[in-house]
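thread: overnight batch results

M.L. [08:02]
morning all. the overnight job finished for the chain we discussed friday. pasting input first so we're all looking at the same thing
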Amino acid sequence: MRLEMRHLVIVLTTADLGTLRQAAPALGMSQIALKAQLRRIEQALGGNLFRHDNNAMELTDLGRTFVCGARNVITRFDALRARVADSAKH
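M.L. [08:03]
and the structure it wrote out:
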């Protein structure tokens, strides 16, 4: 599986909200679909991003590394999009 921007958003939203119950509706998904998507993302990366503690989703070391990088990618992408939109106006 090739990771896409939407996969970064899924992981970041889950990490930020801390539970599947909160993240799923924020992403417009069922909890079952979100859990399956996270499983596929973790398989693509080769390790667990989250530890499931009761209902909470706690980031693993790998998860913290991924989230840090994903935030950077999204920030840079948003800056690129803004520069391109500004250039298109001129």
